[in-house]
Amino acid sequence: MALMITDECINCDVCEPECPNDAISPGEEIYIIDPNHCTECVGHYDEPQCQQVCPVDCIPLDPERQESRDELMEKYRVITAA
């Protein structure tokens, strides 16, 4: 699954620089995650780094983007090959 940022986001700016895939960017009101670039840090780290640094715990799995670990690894390979 890709991750998502909920409206509980306080725009603290700590998640964006932690994303190794540059999937996080400022949205109109809160930060957003591009699901096409989010691999939950598979290929980079054991755990999603944005979740680790978020002070308000507002980055859950996106239930509309269910992906297996193998699918996330394939996405990682495609992203890093470009």
TrEMBL record:
InterPro entries linked: 4Fe4S_Fe-S-bd, 4Fe4S_Fe_S_CS, PSI_iron-sulfur_center, YfhL-like
Residues in 4Fe-4S ferredoxin-type domain copies: 1-29, 31-64
Gene Ontology cellular-component terms listed: cytoplasm
Signal peptide residue numbers: none
Gene Ontology MF term list: 4 iron, 4 sulfur cluster binding; metal ion binding
Annotated Pfam families: Fer4_7
Keyword terms: 4Fe-4S, Electron transport, Iron, Iron-sulfur, Metal-binding, Repeat, Transport
PANTHER family documented for this protein: PHOTOSYSTEM I IRON-SULFUR CENTER (PTHR24960:SF79), PHOTOSYSTEM I IRON-SULFUR CENTER-RELATED (PTHR24960)
Protein's name in the database: YfhL family 4Fe-4S dicluster ferredoxin
Native species: Halomonas eurihalina
